[in-house]
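Notes from the pairing session

We agreed to fold both candidates in a single pass and log them together. This is the raw record for the first candidate, unedited. Please don't reformat it; downstream parsing expects exactly this layout.

Candidate A
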Amino acid sequence: MAQLPNWLKPFDSSYRRALQSWLEPRAGRKVACFDADGTLWFEDIGESFLRWLLAGPLEPLVERDPELYTKYEDRVRKDLVDGYGWAVQLMAGLAEKDIVRWARQHAAAWPNYRSAMLGMIRGLEQLGFEVWIVSASNHWVVAATAQKMGLDPAHVIAIRSEVKDGKLTDRLLDPIPCMQGKVAAINKWIGHRPDLAVGDGMGDLAMLEISQQPLVVGTRKKRDAPLIRVAHEHGWPVHLFD
């Protein structure tokens, strides 16, 4: 058995046991899929970016409807796919080049990266894994954040809409990578069942279920979160951050 690498040491023993078998050389393609918000970093950068847009470039929408963000939260509570998709549709009419620039600025200012998860990504890359981010946030801010982390933005699958004449439209591109849509997106854009998958919420469940080794993260304050309960039922490794 390979010696335990430093990047594994911050994790709970169940994680270490699950990942140690992957330290040995393996032939063939190896794929690791990570959720983004709540997994690679604390909190939700997609929602943070949306709030920023609503306070600036999309302020006219809020002037017409001051309850817009509350309506977004209501949609998410009722239907994750609808809510997260609607957040991207609200960006319709903005120039993509501006969104790319704002997303890079937002990623540069984002303070919530989890160093242990970044260490895991680096360790898996050294073992020959393709690392992908599969997120239900908007594509532009997740791609910018991935690039800041040193990952290939081309390995980001997230919600995006069609672009016409340089501006976003409200026509979402399928499949929407949330819940079962994460599986459809993995099949379309990666074409390989994940060897490892890491997530923190019920929107990640379908992705975890198709992976050879599901891994769940959460926080000690929310140790009874729905996905953590599912993980315990299935015997999946769970790591809780402070």
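Candidate B (folded immediately after A)
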Amino acid sequence: MSEDHLLASVARGDRRAFEELYRVYYRRLIRFLATRIPISHSADEIIDDTFMVVWRCAGEFRRQSQVSTWIFGITYRVALKSLRRNERWSAVVDGCLPEPSIDPTQEAEERDWLEKGLRRLPAKQRLSLLLAYQHGHSMEQVASMTQSPVGTVKARMYHARGKLRHLLTALQ
């Protein structure tokens, strides 16, 4: 069953469809959250809260985006609320790996170098880059997830790339 059909079934109160949607998204959301929340936060709790919103609001989905964009957007907003609630706004950037190299120590050094640069970016700029480049979302999808205009997302990414270029040069 497609994600659109699953969500439509969830909107009608179908618990099996809800369980299937949860199963389909759980690992993807865990990976998404692993790069954005401190280790001390519970990704499972954020995902559970996300799916409570999905259960309650499935009937309100307007099909202006993909189901995945809608669910990732909910997850992003739930995670932000969780981080703000705990007053620990320090996202952990993990999993931003460059292409594998022959030398494993070089790969680790490059990953650390990139992570240091990304950590120094403002949170919204870092998130825009990660959603686009690491997760492969379009500008429109990133805008939908972050509830920002597309122009704002483009500006964030432009400024983030410029800052990252200078940061990475300084970190060498």
